[in-house]
Amino acid sequence: MTSWPDPGAGGAGAAARRPARGRLLVATPLLDDPNFTRTVVLLLEHGEDGAFGLVLNRPTELTLDDAVPDWRPVAAAPAVVFSGGPVSPEAVIALGRGPADAGDGWIAVAGDLGTVDIGRPPGAAGAPVRALRVFAGYAGWAGGQLEAEIAEGAWFVVDADPDDAFTTRPARLWRDVLRRQRGRIALFASYPDDPDTN
Fold first, then answer.
1. Which CATH class is domain 13-197?
2. CA 20 to 30 Å from 37, out of 94, 126, 154, 189?
């Protein structure tokens, strides 16, 4: 695999490439796995044993009215279930915005972003959830696997914006995240869908 520009070029170096809970993985154009082409993944956990996260920009046609109607009033638009990744597509993970100390049924990820137990009724998390997004499945990596993929040039590792997980324009998220980066990575926001047509 050909190497892409160093995301840390121009200052932060290796620390800018380090995956961590609450950071984003942005697929480089080299990543041609159909599960991850042009995806943006929010890391929920990362450690020696591996990592897992949620693909933020793959909405499905299943509405929350059909899946979890009680939570529909706080759903971020579009109010559909998103495909969180190819692992365990029957698993459901919900992200919400609320106080960092929301209590039972809430696990903080970064800032006001956390996972929500939607098996409970709304309000049972101990504090109001201001926005909700539901994901079926997740993305997962064994210990060292993600680091190897990053070294091969499959992923850019960047900081998340609080609104990324609740974007109203999921089809544009990949380009939007790249466009706001400093240095050469921002150039990839204009990378054509089919480079052969350029």
1. alpha beta
2. 94
